[in-house]
Structure formats: structure tokens, C-alpha cells
């Protein structure tokens, strides 16, 4: 599945900061993502989830349990206007229900739900459909960050009654006990943590009706703009993905989008990307798929991706992934 979702640079910045003290050059973590260090100084920059996951995959290769550490650093203040709207909600339950209303602003890759189970509420994260190899990392990041948000909203740690995960316990299971101070269950039916449902009615210490109303309205408008951008970018990606063997160029793509090349360039620049970056990302995704299937020789894959020479494809793939196509296939 092509990654059409947009997100912020928050997680990427956290990854770089986490490894900064270890002397690792940021370029090593950004390798293959299409993100450069200059992008990090642009607070309004937007990247695709595929770019974000490339950086996270580089981090996981260095430290398998990094998802738990990153999640612990994702405080409610990381979510901009949505964070302020949550903090100023009247009750804990009001804040959680508002968060679930705007998953695009949360930047989550999961469907989040609040499920009542007797005297418990399970806060679950399901329907993950992105990179399979990054599933455990993303569950760790998601649930650990949701727990931090809950603690920030209440101004105190939210006591958990249990936590469960769909996959077998990793070899660093002890780290889970540090993030989720409750009974842990692996190879469960879903990914979730539970708390006493009485907390849903708990008044929040920073509740403010006037500020909340203002922030909630701004979130509504931002969500409309953000999801509109996602739909627009998704249309561009769909068109390009169908023409990888003979890419239309910026002029041809603009004609297909019923706009001028100048307008298309401006919109892409506002999204923090370019025509060539989108084309490269789609080629990379398709190349990984074809190499993984193992049916076509590399020169045929190069042809299907629009490269006139196999050597050009090899050079591009090394730039994207850090390894040659033949090594990736092996």
C-alpha cells in the first residue's frame, strides 16, 4: 500500500535527539528518507509517513526497543493546537473523545478506540496497515505516547489495570514494565491498555471553557485543511504510480491535475516536497515490491520504473536504501 498520509517532523526530530548523545551523524538516520537536516528548521514542514518510517527503521536497526523511548517523549505539547484543546477540556473523557475525533492531527497509523469492559475502559490501537516490519515499533510508539498524553492531561500518572499486545513478548520485555506499570499480556487479541472507567469523569486541572472552545474550533479547521491536503496528495500519487514506466513530468502531471505547472510546484512546495521526491518515493516503493517478489530480473524492474539504463536504477536504489538492488533482494 502506498503511503499517502502526511505528518509532521516531530517523531523524526525525537529520533535524531535520542541518538545525538551517541555521536551518530543525523545523515545516517535520515538515509533513504529524502529528508535533509535543513528541513528540521522548518516548523511547518510536512512529510509522508513513508519518509518518517524510513528514519524510524534506521533507528530500529540500531536499537530494537527505541519505540518505547520515543513514545515516552511524545508529550501532549507535541500536538500543537490539538494538545492545547485536550489540556483545556473539562474532563479526561472529554479530552480522549476529542483526540479520537482528529486522528490526522494525532498523526497515528492506527484506528484508536475507547471500549468499555465492565468497570474498565480499554484504550486500543488497531487496524495497522503500513510497513509490516515496523508493526511492533509502531505499537510501542503509539501506546507509550498515549499513556504519556493521559498522564499529562491528568497532571499525574494514570493507574493502569492491564496492557495487552498482539505479538509475542520481545527479548526486551522488561522495558515494557517500565512504560506500563500493570499486568502485561502478549499474543493477545489486540493492542490496548486499560484503566478504571471512573477516570473518564475526572475534571482536568487545566480546564478552561473559553480557551477550549477556541482551540477546538481551530482544530476543526486545521483538520479540514490537513485532510484536504492528504486527499490532494493522494490523487497526485495515484496518477504518478500508474505512470512510473513513463512519468509525465511536472507539466504533464499539472495538466492531469487541471492546474498550471507553477501552481502544482507551489502546492508541492507548501507540502514540503517536490515532483521528483514524490516520483522517487513511488519508484522506491514499487522497486522494493518487485525485488521482494523475485519474479523479474533487475534490468526489467529498471524498465518498469522508467529508467533508461539499469546502472541508473542501481545508483538510485543505493541512494534510496543504502544497499544495491541485488543485496536488497538477497
UniProtKB/TrEMBL annotation:
Domain of life according to the entry: Bacteria
Protein name per its UniProtKB record: Transcriptional regulator, AraC family
Entry keyword Transcription regulation: yes
GO cellular component: cytosol
Short name of any one Pfam family annotated for the protein: HTH_18
Organism placement in taxonomy: Bacteria, Pseudomonadati, Pseudomonadota, Gammaproteobacteria, Pseudomonadales
SUPFAM superfamilies recorded: Homeodomain-like
InterPro entries, sorted: AraC-type_N, Homeodomain-like_sf, HTH_AraC
Domain HTH araC/xylS-type span(s) in chain numbering: 234-330
SMART domains in alphabetical order: HTH_ARAC
Presence of the UniProt keyword Transcription in the record: yes
GO molecular function, one term: transcription cis-regulatory region binding
Keywords, sorted A to Z: DNA-binding, Transcription, Transcription regulation
Amino acid at each position: 500500500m502506498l503511503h499517502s498520509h502526511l505528518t509532521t517532523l516531530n517523531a523524526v526530530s525525537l529520533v535524531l535527539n535520542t541518538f545525538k548523545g551517541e555521536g551518530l551523524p543525523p545523515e545516517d538516520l535520515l538515509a533513504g528518507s529524502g529528508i535533509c537536516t535543513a528541513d528540521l528548521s522548518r516548523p511547518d514542514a510536512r512529510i509522508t509517513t513513508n519518509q518518517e518510517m524510513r528514519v524510524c527503521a534506521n533507528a530500529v536497526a540500531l536499537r530494537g526497543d527505541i519505540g518505547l523511548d520515543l513514545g515516552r517523549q511524545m508529550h501532549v505539547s507535541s500536538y500543537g493546537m490539538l494538545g492545547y484543546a485536550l489540556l483545556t477540556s473539562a474532563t479526561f473523557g472529554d479530552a480522549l473523545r476529542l483526540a479520537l475525533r482528529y486522528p490526522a492531527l494525532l498523526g497515528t497509523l492506527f484506528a484508536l478506540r475507547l471500549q468499555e469492559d465492565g468497570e474498565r475502559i480499554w484504550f486500543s490501537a488497531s487496524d495497522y496497515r503500513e510497513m509490516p516490519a515496523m508493526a511492533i515499533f509502531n505499537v510501542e510508539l503509539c501506546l507509550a505516547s498515549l499513556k504519556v498524553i493521559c498522564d499529562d492531561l491528568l497532571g499525574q500518572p494514570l493507574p493502569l489495570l492491564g496492557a495487552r499486545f498482539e505479538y509475542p513478548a520481545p527479548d526486551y520485555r522488561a522495558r515494557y514494565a517500565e512504560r506500563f506499570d500493570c499486568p502485561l499480556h502478549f499474543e493477545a487479541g489486540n493492542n490496548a491498555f486499560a484503566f478504571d472507567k471512573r477516570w473518564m469523569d475526572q475534571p482536568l486541572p487545566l480546564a478552561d471553557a473559553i480557551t477550549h472552545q477556541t482551540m477546538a474550533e481551530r482544530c476543526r479547521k486545521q483538520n479540514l485543511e490537513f485532510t484536504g491536503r492528504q486527499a490532494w496528495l493522494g490523487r497526485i500519487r495515484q496518477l504518478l504510480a500508474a505512470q512510473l514506466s513513463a512519468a509525465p513530468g511536472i507539466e504533464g502531471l499539472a495538466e492531469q491535475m487541471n492546474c498550471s505547472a507553477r501552481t502544482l510546484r507551489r502546492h508541492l512546495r507548501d507540502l514540503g516536497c517536490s515532483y521528483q521526491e514524490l516520483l522517487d518515493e513511488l519508484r522506491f516503493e514499487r522497486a522494493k515490491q518487485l525485488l521482494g517478489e523475485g519474479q523479474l530480473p533487475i534490468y526489467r524492474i529498471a524498465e518498469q520504473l522508467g529508467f533508461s539504463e539499469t546502472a541508473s536504477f542501481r545508483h538510485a536504489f543505493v541512494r534510496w536504501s543504502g544497499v544495491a538492488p541485488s543485496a536488497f533482494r538477497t
